[in-house]
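#structure-requests
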Amino acid sequence: MERENSSAHDGGSAAAHTGGSAAPQVKPVPLSLVIAVFIGNGLEFYNFLSYALFSVYIGKAFFPSHDASLSTLLSLATFGVGFITRPLGAIVLGSLGDRIGRKPAMLISFVLMGVGMLGLAVTPTYAAIGIAAPILAILFRLVQGFALGGEVGPTTAYMIEAAPAHRRGLYGSMQYTTQDASSLIAALVAVGLSALLTAGQMQEWGWRITFLIGVLIVPFGLYIRNKLPETMHAADDAALAPDATSGTLTRRRLLRPYLRVIACGLALLASGTIGSYVLTYMTTYSLQTLRMPAGVAFGVTVVTSALAVLFEPVSGALSDRFGRKPVILVGCGLTLASVLPVFWIINRFPSTLTLYAGLGWCAALFAIATPPVIIGLTEALPKRIRSGAVATIYALSISIFGGTTQVVIDGLIRITHNPLAPAWYWLFALAVGFAAALSLHESAPAKIRQYAVVPQAA
């Protein structure tokens, strides 16, 4: 793992490991401009995640059925469809981030997300156009998935590369912070709509307002991203020029020394994905299993997202000081110990207080555990393949587990009639993540300096 530590310590340049000349260090981008990346990332996730909040209404609009729970299940399955194209988007747009720059890749993904969002917002219901309605809904979810698959790699790489070395954790934590901020904003919009509109109005057209808001802010996102400086330069390409013996420096050759990092990253991101989408499912869970009013159910996402937004930057800052691995282990371990008791309490004593307090506690602990995962993965990979590799690893874990978590939970509840099914599923994921974290090697620059080994001359 000396190779991984050295890569993280020198800002991710792979020159020392590939025989090329050293690439110059990238000057940190001013925070005022990096904030534009944070905002743009949040806007894109707002568009994608809004679907989950309104899955009950969308199910009735596009997948009508005499069985309300079956309608919801079909809607959740369509939510999962958006994950099918995420690996493809990661490979295509993430790799573009390595070849032509982070900024162009981020712009392309944002345009595609706007197209998918507008299409979903204006698609007529099944009652109006029949089978064309669910077909169009699925098509636009596929476009959204492709766009978001190519979003995470370039933006995370940009955040890490734009940061001073001692603030990479804080900057990198904004990947998750902006995701949860987008969930918070979408939930606040949903709570407001549920208070202003009747149940019939929400079903007929109210849910579309959230999506249209996302469409309206797309031009703003394009504007702020277009002002960004680039962090991937020609000098970085020169540092990785083909050598005389190999002819072509393949991505496979560059990735081979990092297979351990990739395997741990996949396991940890899968664990985090399941946890995130269990919390996202809690709106549907509150409506259908706990029989809570719509306003209370939407409020769950407000509470959990708000606490995540508060604690994820704290996690990033702590990982800068104490290292990525310790923060992951502490956060994951505490969440593991809390999930089952919390779900038992909210089912045994269902109320707004127990629901918000219990799930809020789990969300806060989980927010401590998750940001250092993608931070450590990003800074441990060489810069020239960082965008594509992070995008693909993230998209695979998200597609396999994010796209199925809510359907699996809904199916488990229907089959077992056990309201604790979400807790057991999350516990299994947390156990896998904790085991993977034990195998991690540290990548935080502040900690690496304590045991860095000066490499011998070739």
